Automatic annotation (TrEMBL):
The keyword Transmembrane helix applies. This is Plant PDR ABC transporter associated. Gene3D superfamilies: Helical domain of apoptotic protease-activating factors, P-loop containing nucleotide triphosphate hydrolases, Ribonuclease Inhibitor. Residues 880-1196 form the Disease resistance R13L4/SHOC-2-like LRR domain. InterPro entries: Apaf_helical, LRR_dom_sf, LRR_R13L4/SHOC2-like, NB-ARC, P-loop_NTPase, Plant_NBS-LRR. Keywords: ATP-binding, Coiled coil, Membrane, Nucleotide-binding, Plant defense, Repeat, Transmembrane, Transmembrane helix. One of its GO terms (molecular function) is ATP binding. One of its GO terms (biological process) is defense response. Residues 404-466 form a coiled coil. Residues 537-683 form the NB-ARC domain. Pfam families: LRR_14 (PF23598), NB-ARC (PF00931). The chain crosses the membrane at residues 271-293.
């Protein structure tokens, strides 16, 4: 194809042979040779058809010249290589680019010319993003012993063949999409990274100067330049010990790389240690010197200094590791080839800044030029010095100027918008409206933005005014900080523009519902929750519930005012206290909307629906007692994105009935907020210097108020004129026992609370009154409440304990929903102090029947009330005091409830104490240190509930059999009781609940000669529903299990002192699992002969068992053989010294599937270990026990237990002794998991 016989692009043969005959052509060629390479390769002498010669620009040939040129070139010749060799003889650096369309030819030429567009990037073959197609060719240079031009010619064919199948040049948008799908490190290489190799293209080893050839007067700079030392170290460390031959550029001679470096450059491998020291030393010297230069005022090391330190450190690291990863690529190349590759790799460093890259580039050039031509390096030294002294770089300041210009435009737009809003504000003020706070804040933000913009412009001017000797690194750091700050301000301006659209700029202050003095009455946390839900675009109806006076009304009013003060999208905002029926609500809405109220409900509904359905509305309905039918009223179902309905009620069920998607429980003011309100009302805003005793009594009053704002304000107003401690003590006594006697308390506090109490059904009122008879502010367990309610007859006719507990749970849920009590957790509840005070006030007849309920619980009372109180009282609660004596024969004709429990100093009960209590139904003597019950207890013929648990009585009086109406007899933990006469139990025909666990154990089986109460008597109690019993013989235990009636009724079982019992299997022994289906607690106590307690698998696995207690089993070990006790919640092990290496031993290991973590009690919540002297581990060897629901662990007197080898993700606390906690092995990984759970016993 190509004409190989005629040299179109070179001088004609006639010129070379007969140049003297054509002087004009010779002069033209001589002039072309003197041109720079860039211009020389674009010009040539073209001979025409007639043989005349003319100088042409090859880039601007006419169509005719091009046609003629191609006709002369395209001839039938297959010797393309010969053609290229001839071309190379004329232009050493010329490269012919061949390839299919869109393969990257134009892009390559544009890139080499520095004219590649910013909107284009290229893809390398390895899938990495680069800035230049040139990168591919440069990476291939080292493979061949040729110059860059020859490498380009050979490699570009492979390059275009590959890229031709793809899209070599793509847009930035497409690159971003590819980057999302492609993982891998991006290698971004700047164009300037390849300028240095291009300078050296075409040089060969003969042109490089050895270090010793530099004149003596110039060598000092060679050794003072860190780049020289860097090159020395890089080349010598990589090739100084390589004996492999290398070809020189003439293609004939060869020499070993080691000798070439030594004789040509003066690089000796034995000098490498000194080089390494010098490179590191230059880093240190450069950093210290620059820091001193900049630090005349003790300025910290600049970013620029750190950048150069990192750079030199990187090069020092490269001496050891940098190029050894690709030895073939570098060691096979000629000197100029691997030097080019080195320079290319050198430029792949982190970009500190454009200025740093430029300066570092010049420094690299200086170092390289020392090896090439020391004379040409003088110019680069001067240029580097000039750049170093340049104080401000346009490359730094141009982005800042551009950002500030954008910011100025944004500020100007905001100023125009502010002027328009100001005019609207003036018009609103003329109409008597107050500006909305959001509008004021928006205008102030614009003013602040103007100030910040001015400061940024001043900083820019200051940078421009800096002199030529200013620190570049300081300028760079300052400009980058200013750019970041300017960008932040631009973002702020954009946000202000988005928030600058206001529907209304003012509001009518007369429509506000909350005055400035009422802001402290709003519960802060609940208000924040309500605001979040009110602005949630996915919520249309929000419910607010809580006890009376808790702050629901204040919440809704505060939210109403927020909607008015701040700019919102609501066209209509209505706050309405619901009173009466649907018609009353319709009339109130029409009035709020300033519409005439139609006569009929249907017309009102249609009017309201038509108005509200076309508006964005916020409807706040307060004090609802039952769900409101919005359809009948005329209120459309709100669109959550535009409208809201917010309801407030004391009943949680009302919120649910209204369809609330979000509910908020309001519990009054927080402790700090309540104290602040009380102080501000009592002493004002100024600090007070009151007596500390008065402060203490004031805080007691605040606690009594329980966060109710009305109670706090009422109490504080009453105490304003009280200055002495005595006055505060007197008022404190009234506040504690009779708060209704304080002025304003009935009207402002107790009266509103009574509205909720009056709406409760009769049974729920009785349930709530039982709370009022307990200690104030102390939680009450569900079990205790169940017993109280059974004693009061609220829970009756139950089948078993589970049935009674279910009914108790339902009642507690009803009380909680009515906001009468508060749930602390699943098992405990408490009543608000003011609700308790209200119930006692109501129970006493609201002053009409004073002392009908005499309640002094846990108040350190030492004496019982006087005779007058005994005579009129219906209920007396004196538990938890220090009473020592009781009246001999009190006259109590109306008394139905008497609680003397937990008076541990009370010992004897007078013999005539129960003589005149004909109506008494509930008697509580638990935890009283009495040893004897008077015989006259038999006079209490109406008594239904008697609790003697934890007393010291030794015998039951025979008169108890006369208590024909007794339904509940509690003798739990009366372990001193040794005598129960036969026939006593059979006389209690209505007995439903008998609890004698850890009590009398001498039950007879009915055999001849046996004394005392028998199991047969219990079998005769037809109404018995729940039985707790203690068994001391194997025969009695067998008899109990065989009795279907007793086994079914047994809920609490204690087995103790059974001499013939050596092994006990749970649940198979004595058929416990099959017989006692309702057993909820099992205790094994003082079984000296017992050797083993086995947890075995069984079909009947005691599914209702909740508590297991093992105590004083001196020789027994625990063995696990199956999956029983799946619902066990509490495990207590005390004084079982037969347990040593492992708490529980595993048997049938094959069934465990080799697992190292085994779950044996999945529902266990509490475990207690006490007096376990030999216990060493909670696991069995390498197998750990998992308790997924364990919450509390208690350890006491277990000295050998050093590790907590268990898995308990839900564990919340470990109650133990401090000494034991400190001796734990905290190096153990499993033990470390529990280091934050300590709680002292």
């Amino acid at each position: 194809m190509w004409n190989a016989t005629e040299a179109v692009f070179s001088r004609s043969s006639s010129f070379r042979e007969c140049s003297e005959d054509d002087e004009e052509e010779a002069l033209r060629w001589a002039a072309l040779e003197r041109l720079p390479t860039y211009s020389r390769v674009r010009r040539g002498i073209l001979r025409g058809a007639a043989g005349d010669c003319s100088e042409v620009d090859v880039a601007r040939l006419s169509s005719g010249d091009r046609t003629a040129l191609i006709d002369r070139l395209l001839v039938d010749s297959g010797d393309a290589e010969h053609f290229f060799r001839r071309i190379r003889q004329r232009f050493d650096a010329m490269t012919l680019l061949l390839g299919p369309p869109s393969s990257g030819k134009t892009t390559l030429l544009l890139a080499l010319a520095g004219r590649l567009g910013n909107n284009l990037q290229a893809l390398a073959l390895e899938g990495k993003q680069t800035n230049l197609v040139v990168e591919y060719i440069l990476k291939k240079v080292a493979k061949y012993n040729i110059t860059l031009g020859e490498a380009a010619l050979k490699e570009y064919g492979m390059f275009t063949e590959t890229l031709g199948k793809q899209q070599a040049v793509v847009s930035k948008s497409e690159l971003k999409e590819r980057e999302k799908r492609r993982k891998g490190e991006k290698l971004v290489i700047e164009l300037r990274s390849y300028l240095s190799p291009n300078i050296l293209t075409g040089t060969n080893g003969k042109e490089l100067q050895k270090g010793m050839r530099i004149p003596g007067w110039w060598r000092w700079y060679y050794w003072a330049d860190p780049i020289s030392w860097t090159l020395y170290g890089l080349l010598t460390s990589q090739f100084g010990d390589v004996d492999a031959p290398m070809n020189l550029s003439d293609g004939i001679h060869s020499v070993s790389i080691k000798l070439f470096l030594k004789h040509h450059f003066g690089f000796r491998h034995e000098f490498l240690g000194v080089v390494a020291v010098m490179v590191v030393g230059f880093c240190i010297i450069f950093a210290v010197s620059i820091d001193w230069y900049i630090g005349m005022e003790r300025i910290v090391l600049s970013t620029h200094t750190a950048a150069f330190a990192v750079h030199f450190g990187t090069l020092a690291w490269c001496m050891k590791h940098g190029f050894r990863q690709q030895p073939r690529k570098i060691r096979s190349c000629r000197p100029d080839g691997f030097l080019l590759c080195f320079v290319g790799e050198l430029r792949i460093i982190p970009r500190f800044s454009p200025y740093s890259s430029l300066l570092l580039y010049f420094r690299c050039e200086i170092g390289i030029r020392f090896c090439v031509d020391y004379k040409s390096s003088v110019l680069l030294i001067l240029l580097c010095t000039t750049v170093s002294c340049c104080s401000t770089s346009r490359e730094h300041l141009m982005p800042l100027e551009k950002t500030l210009a954008s910011l100025a435009g944004e500020v100007q737009e905001l100023k125009s918008k502010r002027e328009a809003v100001s005019r609207e504000l003036e018009a609103a003020k003329d109409q008597g409206l107050e500006p909305k706070s959001r509008v004021i804040e928006w205008m102030e933000s614009i003013q602040q933005l103007e100030t910040e913009t001015g400061s940024l412009n001043e900083e820019l001017s200051r940078l421009k005014r800096r002199g030529a000797c200013s620190s570049l690194s300081a300028n760079s750091s300052s400009s980058e900080q200013l750019i970041r700050k300017a960008e932040e301000e631009v973002a702020t301006a954009g946000e202000l523009k988005r928030n600058g659209e206001f529907r209304k700029v003012g509001f009518d202050e007369k429509l506000l519902k909350v005055g400035l003095s009422d802001e402290t009455l709003v519960p802060v946390e609940a208000l924040e929750q309500l605001r979040r839900h009110a602005t949630d675009g996915c919520v249309s109806i929000v419910g607010v519930h809580g006890m009376g006076l808790a702050g629901k009304t204040a919440l809704l009013r505060s939210l109403h005012d927020d909607f008015l003060k701040h700019d919102t999208d609501y066209d209509v905002v209505i706050y309405l206290e619901v009173r009466g029926e649907v018609m009353d609500v319709q009339s109130s809405l029409c009035k709020e909307l300033s519409f005439p109220c139609p006569e009929t409900p249907i017309e009102r509904r249609d009017l309201l629906f038509g108005v509200l359905s076309k508006s964005n509305f916020a409807l706040l309905l307060d004090d609802l007692w039952e769900p409101l039918n919005c359809e009948l009223v005329g209120v459309p179902i709100p669109d959550p994105s535009t409208s809201k309905i917010i309801v407030a009620s004391r009943l949680e069920d009302v919120c649910s009935g209204m369809g609330a998607q979000k509910t908020i429980k309001v519990e009054g003011l927080a402790e700090k907020q309540a104290w602040d309100l009380f102080k501000s009302t009592l002493w004002g805003r100024q600090p007070n210097d009151e007596d500390m005793i008065i402060i203490y009594r004031a805080k007691a009053m605040v606690f009594k108020c329980g966060g109710l704002a009305a109670a706090l304000v009422t109490t504080a107003r009453e105490m304003k004129d009280k200055k002495t401690s005595t006055e505060w003590k007197e008022k404190g006594h009234i506040m504690r026992n009779a708060p209704h006697e304080l002025p304003g308390m009935e009207k402002e506090v107790l009266g509103p609370l009574k509205r909720s109490y009056d709406r409760l059904p009769g049974d729920l009122q009785k349930c709530a009154s039982c709370f009022a008879l307990q200690a104030e502010g102390r939680p009450i367990s569900k079990d205790q409440l169940m017993e109280l309610w059974m004693g009061e007859g609220i829970i009756a006719d139950f089948e078993n304990i589970c049935d009674a507990m279910s009914r108790a749970s339902h009642l507690l849920q009803e009380l909680t929903a009515a906001s009468s009590i508060k749930r602390l957790d699943d098992e405990t509840f408490e009543m608000h102090p003011m609700v308790r005070a209200m119930i006692l006030w109501v129970a006493n007849g609201c002053e009409e029947g004073k002392n009908k309920w005499y309640v002094r619980v846990r108040e350190w009372v030492t004496q019982t009330p006087d005779a007058g109180v005994w005579n009129v009282a219906e209920r007396i609660a004196l538990s938890g005091n220090v009473i020592e004596a009781l009246p001999d024969n009190p006259d109590c004709p109306k008394l139905v409830y008497l609680d003397l429990g937990s008076n541990q100093r009370l010992k004897p009960i007078p013999d005539g104490f129960f003589d005149r209590m004909p109506c008494l139904r509930v008697l509580n003597l638990q935890h009283v240190a009495i040893e004897k019950i008077p015989e006259n207890i038999g006079h209490l013929v109406l008594l239904e509930y008697l609790s003697l648990c934890q007393t010291r009585i030794q015998t039951l009086p025979s008169s108890i059999r006369k208590l024909a109406n007794l339904k509940h007899l509690i003798l739990r933990s009366t372990n001193s009781l040794r005598d129960v006469a036969g026939g006593i139990m059979s006389g209690l025909e209505k007995l439903q609940w008998l609890h004698m666990m850890d009590s009398y154990s001498g039950w007879s089986t009915g055999e001849p000669g046996e004394m005392g109460a028998s199991l047969g008597e219990l079998e005769g109690l037809g109404d018995l529903r729940a039985l707790g019993i203690t068994i001391a013989t194997v025969d009695a235990l067998r008899r109990l299990c065989r009795s279907r009636m007793l086994a079914k009724r047994t809920h609490w079982l204690q087995i103790e002192a059974c001499k013939g019992l050596t092994s006990f299997r749970i649940p198979s022994s004595f058929s416990l699992g099959k017989a006692m289906l309702n057993l909820i607690e099992l205790r094994l106590h003082e079984l000296d002969k017992l050797k083993e307690v086995v947890f075995s698998e069984s079909a009947a696995a005691l599914s209702n068992l909740k508590r297991l207690r093992l105590s004083d089993l001196r020789s027994a070990k625990l063995t696990w053989r199956g999956s029983c006790l799946q619902n066990l919640e509490e495990l207590e092990i005390e004084g079982c010294n037969g347990i040593d290496a492992a708490l529980i031993r595993l048997k049938d290991e094959g069934a465990m599937d080799g697992s190292q973590t085994i779950t044996i009690l999945p529902n266990l919540k509490r475990i207690k270990l006490k007096r376990m002297q030999r216990l060493q581990s909670l696991s069995d060897g390498d197998r750990e026990f998992a308790f997924p629901r364990l919450e509390t662990m208690e350890v006491e007197d277990c000295p050998k237990l050093r590790k907590l080898s268990l898995v308990a993700p839900e564990l919340k606390e470990i109650r133990c002794e401090v000494r034991w906690w400190r001796q734990l092995d905290w190096e153990d990984d499993r033990t470390k998991c529990f280091d934050k759970l300590f709680k002292a016993l």
